Amino acid sequence: MPSIDELAISTIRGLAVDAVSAANSGHPGAPLGLAPAAHVVWKQMKFNPQDPNWINRDRFVLSNGHACALLYSLLVLFKYDLTVDDLKQFRQLNSKTPGHPEATDTAGVEVTTGPLGQGIANAVGIAIAQKQFAATYNKPDITLSDSYVYTFLGDGCLMEGVSSEASSLAGHLQLNNLIAFWDDNRISIDGDTAVAFTENVPERYRAYGWNVIEVKDGNTDLEAIANAVKEAKKSTDKPTLIRLVTTIGYGSLQQGTHGVHGSPLKADDIKQLKKGWGFDPEAKFFIPNEVAEYYAEHVAENQKVQKEWEATLAQYKQKYPKEGAEVQRRLDGKLPEGWKKHLPVYTPADKPLATRKLSENVINALHGNIPEFIGGSADLTGSNLTRAEGSVDFQPPSTGLGAYDGVYIRYGVREHGMGAIMNGIAAFGANYKNYGGTFLNFVSYAAGALRLSALSHHPVIWVATHDSIGLGEDGPTHQPIETLAHFRAIPNLSVWRPADGNEVSAAYAAAIESTSHPSVIALTRQNLPQLEGSTIENALKGGYTLVKGSDKPDIILVATGSEVSISVGAAEELKKQGITANVVSLPDFFTFDKQSYDYRKSVLPDGVPILSVEVMSSFGWSKYSHEQVSINRFGASGKAGDLYKFFGFTPEAIAEKAVKTVNFYKGKEVFSPLDKAF
Amino acid sequence: MPSIDELAISTIRGLAVDAVSAANSGHPGAPLGLAPAAHVVWKQMKFNPQDPNWINRDRFVLSNGHACALLYSLLVLFKYDLTVDDLKQFRQLNSKTPGHPEATDTAGVEVTTGPLGQGIANAVGIAIAQKQFAATYNKPDITLSDSYVYTFLGDGCLMEGVSSEASSLAGHLQLNNLIAFWDDNRISIDGDTAVAFTENVPERYRAYGWNVIEVKDGNTDLEAIANAVKEAKKSTDKPTLIRLVTTIGYGSLQQGTHGVHGSPLKADDIKQLKKGWGFDPEAKFFIPNEVAEYYAEHVAENQKVQKEWEATLAQYKQKYPKEGAEVQRRLDGKLPEGWKKHLPVYTPADKPLATRKLSENVINALHGNIPEFIGGSADLTGSNLTRAEGSVDFQPPSTGLGAYDGVYIRYGVREHGMGAIMNGIAAFGANYKNYGGTFLNFVSYAAGALRLSALSHHPVIWVATHDSIGLGEDGPTHQPIETLAHFRAIPNLSVWRPADGNEVSAAYAAAIESTSHPSVIALTRQNLPQLEGSTIENALKGGYTLVKGSDKPDIILVATGSEVSISVGAAEELKKQGITANVVSLPDFFTFDKQSYDYRKSVLPDGVPILSVEVMSSFGWSKYSHEQVSINRFGASGKAGDLYKFFGFTPEAIAEKAVKTVNFYKGKEVFSPLDKAF
User: Fold this and answer.
1) What digits encode the pLDDT tens for the residues A9-59?
2) Across the interface, which of A100, A172, A415 has its CB nearest the CB of B196?
3) What is the CATH number of the domain that holds B178?
4) Which of A120, B135, B143, B383 shows its CA 20 to 30 Å from the CA of A335?
5) Interface contact flag, A190 B381, Cβ < 8 Å
6) Which of A303, A305, A343, A251 lies closest to A143, judged by CA?
7) What is B420-476 written as a DSSP string?
């Protein structure tokens, strides 16, 4: 007779294998190998399937997202909003059980995973957020937050650089609330890990400052797994890596080979597996009653735990009304009332400043007014200007460098890790609006995390300074050319390139209010004037007519960021030559596209040739302009002023191209690029 | 009296400091700290400034590229094609001394560095290439290749994930020809590395399988540095990391602080430095004669070494005429004569195949015919189909898994590391044409390396399979949407998306013949028919009219890859409705843009509305089309066929949009998008 635990594990395995088989697509190997650990971990986790967003739940992150049949099986067994019928739709269009876990589609999926290495880095972010939240609100007599984050990861996750970056930082930050299980099954897609991955992982993680625990038999030794978790929880100053030695596809005729990794098991193999578990080999998606009850008990216990926590919160609100109200506001996803009045506003009389400096002004203005607005930089604090005056660093108190309720994160030179960690902080909940700074060009290092921010609807903010050839001497290795095209082509991503102080404030206003999309804010190194005609309200439309040369101008110049003021200069040049020009500032395509057709058409109407001006690739600009002043090559090292001249971004050079544009379109019928056939 | 070595080191330091000062921009800290190690290393390196591409030279890679004033000073002192006048133009537009080292601009700069972490990964690639070259051509009695690669890296490089990936692989591959110096100065831009970087680096590198040597005083202990190099060279099966403890800005009044990292020294500080070295504090760019002579001696010795090597090569050619001819051919940068005749050619009678499979056919056909055509996959060999039948893995012989003359590299799940390593292999020389496979979506993980391939003119090849929603069930985390827009916006990058077998052969033909640009070849998971009208010659134009519906069609459908055959189907649908359509296949924008205006205009003429069809973002397509069938959202998990239907990529759905397009433009004057005002 198998024990109830063994029965439960066989049930998880059976559901996972049947789901993959029904889809005739998916990954049965990891679920078979990891079911015992999943069972043991979930059996002691704190969560409520009826309230999957409860802030003090323990979180589970499946970093090896291809093993999602395992996760979906758990969600079904613990009675999240997912059923056996959903498992039958595994990997089918519009199901709640897509081929990799998507947090936006399935309750109980904490973060969207699949791209390897991201999940463990998300888990680091969740752990940071939990520490920060706990340190901010826990009181000596009342603990509001004490949850753990568990993550499963495979060899692939460990090979990815993004996990190295995040793991090194997790060690530095002493995140003892993070418990990671390495599925050490010695198999990856290319076969035995001996072909490419022979490093000593435990030693590497010890070098990062982690606690490493070994479980020699992850296939059957449930006690060892449970003890490892217990031991991990004793850690006071280190995250824990549990090395779980397993057999991929445990029990399958192909166990221990990569044949079982990414292809459904054969029908006969499934039958022998089920026979081995004592199940009817013909029955599919079988859930023994005693297993259902066993998990239901755990849920019932957990619901009690949540009830108690709610009583604690009520008590907290009474005893600490100010903090209590703040916690409630954050749990409700509301920003502090009137927060926007802190946003700086400028007039043309204000002095020219770099938009990175104007961004610092916003951060300074908001610091202290929005406690959930936290952030950091990938070792470019003094260049990104991301640290609010007087803010405290998020650091282990023992370092003497800060505290866990600090709001400023020193990410180190780890852009990709930072991006994935930011996603984790957002995923924690509690309304965190978190930002990370680096040079615009190096946001590309984090492309893998950035697209997941957009796919997962995380409202994270990239403070992306040094946004063009205007950075000057550092040269082409640091100067973005393709970068904005890349980001603008990502669905659900705001890409702001503000032209002055009011537009910077608008970019932050939109980015902080967002609940469903990330934002990149591209900022200059060099000074820009405060523009006549710019307002926060105008910029919040994503694009607007800044200079109205006439009701029916000869040309429209549309520009972003540092090229807006140059285009204003070009319009003045053109005026001297009897040519009227409107100047349109278009700080964010994504926001502009959401405006009404009539509004957009009023900005970019028929009958006028439109010339766009931006110091990088023209790629994608035909969406809004007929002609482009741009840079379709790599940049160069030199003084910013020299580069602007060299690449033809002066009022005179632009005016010259405007004249050519006006002449070219003379006598032709000109249609707005906004109008489309379907 | 300072020793000649001390004098030389002071000279390096002086030149670097003066260059930064002349530019009033740059990084003096690292050159001051690293000058002693640079001097010791270069004094024993094998290279010839008169012949900087000599294949058996030792290579030096400055991974912390911001320290380039150090590198330029060395190049001046060793009399590469760089002078004090060039140093005076440091960081100025069009100088040979840009703000970060650029291999395309300056003889003696091995690879373009600056983006942190890349250089050390490039060095791993160089080491791989050297091992492969040596194992392929060295004979028991004649050694043609035995060079080392040295690299300097800072804390920033060590924090980046790309260096972790490459370092782990270097350990696995036992690259004992790689010697890395970690400039352990405990300072990064955010200040003390204690704020973010407290891991135990030596332990981590030991865990990777490296040899770690400590030099406690890198500021003055020249003997210890020299001994460390000697010891490193004794390693038979491990790369070496030399931990070099230095003081950033050594000797400056600001030494040991981040104030000395990225800003020029004050005039007074420079004076006191020079005084300390026994130099005239007012003299700039001072090179004592004895230092010039000292370095000249080393160069003279090295030139003798190269002469001897040339004699060895001559002897080799006599004794091993076949290999000798091959070596010479490769050194001349010529591909084997007639190699292109091996490229597979197809007719519509051939069966439908996935383009990834057609790519495998090319790789199989070229394997053995082009010895310098080597490559691998980031742990997706069975999916990318990148391994030629019967090829040997590049592995340390002791593993029993392959040999150093193997041509197939098991990169592990390390896309960014792979990208940077590929750049290093290309940088080694000997005509290496190397490729790396992963899913198209995960080439984005390597965005940082990819843009450097393009900037540095490395003809590397990405075999990017599973190139769209056509991959099916893996879902949106794996399905590229923005990816082609991103890559097409990168200057100097070919982005092929072939539609059938002939186009796949064309993509490889162009990619392998390239000497100055990298290529991404996007390939399907799903089968595609062999098209009527496709030929290698046609495809080599980057775009061509595949189906000529009429001389003056009602509409042109322009598509790439898997959407070409669907568009052919749409044209047939349209014909039934009395609408004539041309179908244009546009497999590579970059190549198409290089064709004559007349040719391009013949493909995309005036007077016909053009509808583009591609299963991803429309961003950038307005460059060639008036209207777009595209996907401007993330994909979905489901069967490929279901997804194509759901997203409207069937002949019928496209025909419907084509009809709308024809109607929309009826009566309007339609201009080719190719025509521009300037």
Assistant:
1) 999 999 999 999 999 999 999 999 999 999 999 999 999 999 999 999 999
2) A172
3) 3.40.50.970
4) A120
5) yes
6) A305
7) HHHHHHHHH-TT-EEEEEEEHHHHGGGHHHHHHHHHHT---EEEEES-SGGG-TT-T
Q: Look at B638 and A91 and tell me if their CB atoms are within 8 Å.
A: yes
How far is Cα A638 from Cα A231, in angstroms, rounded to an integer? 57
Q: Containing domain of residue A416, as a range?
A: 339-528
Phi, psi of A628 (to 5 degrees): -135, 130
What pLDDT, on a 0 to 100 scale, did the predictor assign at position A526?
98
Locate A601 and state its tokens.
């058409």
Total structural domains within chain B: 3
- Considering the domain architecture, whether residues B586 and B498 belong to the same structural domain is answered as no
Contacts of B625 in chain A (CB under 8 A): none
What is the pLDDT confidence band of residue A1, given thresholds at 50, 70 and 90? confident
What is the average per-residue pLDDT within A245-257? Answer: 96
| pLDDT of B1 | 81
Query: What's the pLDDT band for A656 if we cut at 50, 70, 90?
Result: very high
Q: Looking at A528, A556, A584, which one is the last position of a domain?
A: A528
Do A73 and A47 form a contact (C-beta atoms < 8 A)? Answer: no
- How wide is the angle at C-alpha B379 spanned by C-alphas B374 and B382, nearest 5°? 80
CB A26 within 8 A of CB A70: no
Which token pair is A276? 């081995």
Does some domain include residue A267?
yes
To the query of whether residue B415 is one of the catalytic residues in this protein, the response is: yes
Are residues A277 and A373 located together in one domain of the fold?
A: no
The token duo for A408 is 């400023």
- B584 and B609 assigned to the same domain: yes
Amino acid A501: pLDDT: 98
B59 beta partners: B149
- Has residue B325 been placed in a domain? no
Report residue A318's pLDDT band, with 50, 70 and 90 as the boundaries.
very high
B66 is in an annotated binding site: yes
Q: Is B356 annotated as a binding residue?
A: yes
Report the chain B residue with the minimal C-alpha distance to residue A481.
B490
Q: Is the pLDDT of residue A488 over 90?
A: yes
Q: Does B478 count as an annotated binding residue?
A: yes
Name the minimum distance, in Å, from the CA of A116 to any CA of chain B. Answer: 8
Active-site hit among A415, A503, A563, A614: A415
Regarding whether A566 and A657 lie in a shared domain, the answer is yes
Answer whether A637 sits within 8 Å of B98, measured CB to CB.
yes
Tell me: the pLDDT tens digits for B88-111?
Answer: 999 999 999 999 999 999 999 999
**What pLDDT sits at residue A56?**
98
Predicted confidence at residue A187, as pLDDT, reads 93
Contacts of A95 in chain B (CB under 8 A): 637-638
- Distance between A379 CA and the closest CA of chain B, angstroms: 5
The sign of the torsion formed by the CA atoms of B272, B275, B277, B281 equals positive
Same domain, B404 and B509: yes
Q: Would B320 be classed as within a structural domain? A: no
Confidence at B391, pLDDT banded by 50, 70, 90? very high
With CB atoms and an 8 Å threshold, state whether B627 touches A677.
yes
Q: Identify all chain B residues contacting A209, using CB atoms and an 8 Å cutoff.
A: 198-200
Partner-chain contact A617 B489, CB within 8 Å: yes
Tokens of A663: 């002449």
Q: How near does any CA of chain A get to the CA of B257, in Å?
A: 14
Chain A: residue whose CA lies nearest to B642: A93
pLDDT-derived band at B153, boundaries 50, 70, 90 = very high
Q: Based on the fold, state whether residues A298 and A401 are members of the same structural domain.
A: no
Q: Do B485 and A609 touch (CB under 8 A)?
A: no
- For residue A395, list its beta bridge partners: none
Residue of B nearest to A379 (CA): B190
Q: Which of B25, B163, B416, B477 to mutate to test the interface with A (most CBs of A within 10 A)?
A: B477
Min distance B84 CA to chain A CA atoms (Å): 18
- Which residues in chain A are closer than 8 Å to B442, comparing Cβ atoms? 115, 448
pLDDT band at A486 (very low <50, low <70, confident <90, very high): very high
Residues A102 and A215 in one domain: yes
Residue A324 in domain: no
The residue type of A353 is L
